[in-house]
């Protein structure tokens, strides 16, 4: 007698050879369909990054009085922090490791920025504030270098954005570490440029969704 396993067409009959195969395949198809139903979270993450970065950079560049800098705290908590963190979680759901890592990390950056200024900065001696802030920013600059390398497989504008953010972090970091106002202001202007570029990418994503086709140039670096 010829069994199902020995049957010459057994590999073409997964449901008969393995009763669970059909259910597993169906579950995978349903999971894939559910992921496709999730809207692209990248424009939200980019918008949150853009607005918060732009607002803080107004103070760093000297275009807004430093005394007005606390206005950033609420935005850093709600938008740059929580909204970007949510965007990162949705990127995990869509299987985008790069987007998930970027948005979750920078969301955590803004949450930690808010927490630092709200709860912990007062516990650091005044003469050490520059050292603390400087090394914090430099460490985030190193992380951004790693993400810049990953962005080289995305689009030209996104890769350029990460390059500008790297410059901004290191200028701000060394400016704070050495007490050089000129570096801090230069980092602030780099941050303004980064915010504008992130807004551009946000708009490009939103318009692509609403118009059903690419509207703003954002050339892929792949292929």
Automatic annotation (TrEMBL):
The keyword Membrane applies. One of its GO terms (cellular component) is plasma membrane. InterPro entries: AceTr, Gpr1/Fun34/SatP-like. Signal peptide: none annotated. Its main location: membrane. Keywords: Membrane, Transmembrane, Transmembrane helix. It is found in: Membrane. The chain crosses the membrane at residues 37-59, 71-90, 97-117, 129-149, 156-177, 189-211. One of its GO terms (molecular function) is acetate transmembrane transporter activity. It is a multi-pass membrane protein. The keyword Transmembrane applies. Belongs to the acetate uptake transporter (AceTr) (TC 2.A.96) family. PANTHER family: ACCUMULATION OF DYADS PROTEIN 2-RELATED. This is GPR1/FUN34/yaaH family protein. It comes from Nakamurella multipartita (strain ATCC 700099 / DSM 44233 / CIP 104796 / JCM 9543 / NBRC 105858 / Y-104).
